[in-house]
From TrEMBL, chain A:
CDD domains per the UniProt record, alphabetical: IPMI (cd01583)
Cofactor(s) required, per the database record: [4Fe-4S] cluster
Stored InterPro entries: 3-IsopropMal_deHydase_lsu, Acnase/IPM_dHydase_lsu_aba_1/3, Acoase/IPM_deHydtase_lsu_aba, Aconitase_4Fe-4S_BS, Aconitase_4Fe-4S_dom, IPM_dehydratase_rel_enz, IPMI_cat
Name listed for the protein in its UniProt record: 3-isopropylmalate dehydratase large subunit
SUPFAM superfamilies: Aconitase iron-sulfur domain
Keywords from the UniProt entry: 4Fe-4S, Amino-acid biosynthesis, Branched-chain amino acid biosynthesis, Iron, Iron-sulfur, Leucine biosynthesis, Lyase, Metal-binding
Positions contributing to [4Fe-4S] cluster binding: 353, 411, 414
Taxonomic lineage from the root: Bacteria, Pseudomonadati, Pseudomonadota, Alphaproteobacteria, Hyphomicrobiales
Cross-referenced HAMAP family: LeuC_type1
Assembly and binders: Heterodimer of LeuC and LeuD.
UniProtKB/TrEMBL annotation, chain B:
Physiological role: Catalyzes the isomerization between 2-isopropylmalate and 3-isopropylmalate, via the formation of 2-isopropylmaleate.
UniProt GO molecular function: (R)-2-methylmalate dehydratase activity; 3-isopropylmalate dehydratase activity
Keyword match Amino-acid biosynthesis: yes
Entry EC no(s): 4.2.1.33
Catalytically driven reaction(s): (2R,3S)-3-isopropylmalate = (2S)-2-isopropylmalate
Name the UniProt record assigns to this protein: 3-isopropylmalate dehydratase
Assembly description: Heterodimer of LeuC and LeuD.
Listed SUPFAM superfamilies: LeuD/IlvD-like
Enzyme superclass (EC): lyase
Pfam families to which the protein is assigned, alphabetical: Aconitase_C
Matching Gene3D superfamilies: Aconitase, domain 4
Domain Aconitase A/isopropylmalate dehydratase small subunit swivel, residue spans: 1-123
UniProt keywords, alphabetically: Amino-acid biosynthesis, Branched-chain amino acid biosynthesis, Leucine biosynthesis, Lyase
Length: 480, 205
């Protein structure tokens, strides 16, 4: 279908974006309507801006608070935690109460990480515009929503007006065709893409993920993939809605029901890029070329298949990149030419908005079942709902029997704001999204990988090709 | 917000790629009130060792670069999180312009909302500028009207989104502009109720 007045068809991104434009200026700036706004504890700067202007929240019914960044995972009793951390949680409670916002607090059975809670509560729907003061908001694009992270000034703007000024970014399509090999997951797709195009490879672009390998991903896998769009520099990532999307949403607490759901589903399924839509950039990957991957450096672009060796900075032509690799190897304390699978680890972390959903936990448990971890580690499910489901499936027993800690939901050791830290100098195999210097704690060293890969590293004590440890799936789940 | 026209100031090189937001301000400082100033946390773990002593090899600790208002860095500056605190740390330290070949999108947007200019230069020009600074150039002049950077006998062009340029030149704040569109916003919301009745969250409890 071609829209009158345009020469070619429109992309999925164009369709959702255009449907939210309230005002378009001559310079290209568009005032966009925002359908969902999520807030976490970091929103205090924005609320202070409202206070300065004596302003109210324009649409409390579209605004949701979620306690995740600072919440303790080993207790839910705030009286026993660091007062400065407690203060962050209390500020969000105070601001939510003052403005009449629905808050998923620690006592709420739906509490968890904002990017896990949104989809599982049915707050995330196809065709929406969604923002949050968190760069991993791109996650929600898995449903065909335009979802992106914003800073505090923009959070304040959305709170006061339910709108945001945006210029339409360029459009990029990443097509992955073919079948993923057993054990290869959405995380591996994402790391392969980022390694190929760089941590700023998609800057200024909205990404659409397409192709048979993407279609065959579950919603959990699509969420992982879109989550990591920002690690390629993308403004957002999207997957066109299909029957998998609609089936996931039916019956979710905040999703429409009855005839309203049916109308929604019809509208959602129409959200596809037109056959003649033109993208500013196209990238193609063969699913068969993707292997279980790990990062060895200090940006997500420093990723390689687990079967590879640590690169040698002398082999890079670009002096800036060579310097970056040299700095990375020094910080990570690894040697050029070393087999990645020889790198020993001190602990593991399974959690974060990237990889803490039920399928992620099943994938890790399928490797750990009947085995012992040789290093300590933390497993933090993405939400309390995921936690209850995992316990119903007996996954908690597998983690505990392996010797890992099974704790409550929050951002936890991905960013360490709640005190769940990797000690200085220690090396962590982690299902998270950023291997930046000191991200998991001052002096910490992070290797990013999929949940099954983290589980394999936990068993052997070094980075390991999980395919060597594959065994039967647990609880009806599968490793992918 | 103060308009940005030209800036003639001490300039500090930071010859690293991917200076991410976790470097710009480590998460552990983000509980602090902005009223106390975030300047002391800027690039904290690059500037200070575990004991809190200054690291001599960090360019920001160079006595000749004290009072710097311009920072020159390599590609993908400000990648990572949406934390506006990364911009607060720069601005509170005194930095009003960062020059680099590319920026994290969210960082750049946050920068402009705080009057900080993200000036994009080519990789080659960036390396020339860094070389000039390494050879002893102390200052640079950034002209936003002309979109040029003068330093070390170089005159380099830079790019910035035209919308951001106008906003910075005028010191505009979006909110007041948006409020002038209040009627259009209400009309959109009203029409949308019929167009997409399924958008409203079902449960409110």
């Amino acid at each position: 279908m071609t829209v009158a007045g345009t020469e070619s068809g429109r992309t999925l991104f164009d369709k959702v974006f255009d449907a939210h434009v309230i005002v378009k200026r001559e310079d290209g700036q568009c005032l966009l309507w925002i359908d969902r706004h999520f807030l976490h504890e970091g929103s205090f700067h924005a609320f202070n801006k409202l206070k300065e202007r004596d302003a109210e929240v324009a649409r409390p019914d579209l605004t949701f608070g979620i306690e995740d960044h600072y919440v303790p995972t080993r207790t839910r009793d705030l009286s026993v935690i660091d007062p400065a951390i407690r203060g962050m949680i209390e500020q969000l409670r105070g601001n939510s109460q003052r403005h009449g916002l629905r808050l998923f607090d620690l006592d709420d059975p739906g509490q968890g990480i904002v990017h896990v809670v949104g989809p599982e509560q049915g707050l995330t729907l196809p065709g929406l515009t969604m923002v949050c003061g968190d760069s991993h908001t791109a996650t929600h694009g898995a449903f065909g929503a335009i979802a992106f992270g914003i800073g505090a000034s923009e959070v304040a703007h959305v709170l006061m007006t339910q709108t945001l000024w945006q210029k339409k970014p360029k459009r990029m399509r990443i097509t992955v065709e073919g079948a993923l090999a057993p054990g290869v997951s959405a995380k591996d797709i994402a790391l392969s893409i980022i390694a190929r195009i760089g941590a700023d490879g998609a800057a200024g672009h909205a990404i659409e993920y397409a192709g048979s390998a993407i279609r065959s991903l579950s919603m959990e896998g699509r969420l992982t993939l879109c989550n990591l769009s920002i690690e390629a520099g993308g403004r957002c990532g999207m997957v066109a809605p299909d029957q998998t999307t609609v089936d996931y949403l039916r019956g979710r607490p905040f999703a429409p029901e009855g005839t309203l759901f049916d109308k929604g589903a019809a509208d959602w399924l129409a959200l596809q890029s037109d056959a003649d839509a033109v993208f500013d950039r196209e990238m193609h990957l063969d699913a068969a070329d993707i292997a279980p991957s790990v990062t060895w450096g200090i940006t997500p672009e420093d990723a390689s298949p687990i079967t590879a060796k640590v690169p040698d900075p002398e082999n890079f032509e670009d002096p800036a990149r060579a310097q970056q690799v040299r700095d990375a190897l020094e910080y990570m304390d690894i040697r050029p030419g070393q087999c990645l699978s020889d790198i020993r680890i001190d602990r593991v972390f399974i959690g974060s908005c990237t990889n803490s959903r039920i399928e992620d936990l099943r994938a890790a448990a399928s490797i750990l079942k009947g085995r012992k971890a040789s290093v300590p580690g933390l497993v933090s499910p993405g939400s309390m709902q995921v936690k209850r489901q995992a316990e119903a499936e007996g996954l908690d027993r597998i983690f505990l029997d392996a010797g890992l800690e099974w704790v409550d939901a929050g951002c936890s050791m991905c960013v360490g704001m709640n005190g769940d830290l990797v000690p200085p100098g220690e090396r962590c195999a982690s299902t998270t999204n950023r291997n930046f210097r000191g991200r998991q704690g001052p002096g910490s060293r992070t290797h990013l990988m999929s949940p099954a890969m983290v589980a394999a590293a936990a068993v052997t004590g070094h980075l390991t090709d999980m395919r060597e440890l594959m065994q039967a799936p647990v609880a009806g789940g599968n490793i992918g | 917000m103060k308009p940005f026209k030209t800036l003639d100031a001490i300039t500090c090189p930071l010859p690293q790629s991917n200076v991410d937001t976790d470097q710009l301000i480590p998460a552990r400082f983000m509980k602090r009130s902005r009223a106390d100033g975030y300047g002391g946390f800027l690039l904290h773990d690059l500037r200070f060792d575990e004991t809190g002593a200054q690291k001599p090899d960090c360019p920001l600790n160079d006595p000749e670069r004290q009072g710097a208002q311009i920072l020159v860095s390599r590609r993908n500056f400000g990648s990572g999180s949406s934390r506006e605190a990364a911009v607060y740390a720069l601005v509170d330290y005194g930095i009003n312009c960062v020059v680099a070949p590319s920026f994290g999108d969210i960082f750049a947007s946050n920068a402009v909302n705080n009057g900080l200019l993200p000036a994009t230069v080519s990789e080659d020009d960036c390396e020339a500028l860094l070389a000039g600074l390494a050879d002893g150039a102390q200052t640079a002049t950034v002209d936003l009207e002309a979109q040029t950077i003068r330093a070390a006998n170089l005159v380099l062009p830079f790019t910035v989104d035209p919308v951001w340029r106008t906003k910075l030149l005028n010191g505009w704040d979006d909110i007041d502009l948006t409020r002038s569109h209040a009627a259009a916003i209400s009309a959109f919301a009203e029409a949308d109720r019929t167009r997409r009745p399924w958008m409203q969250p079902r449960k409110t409890g």
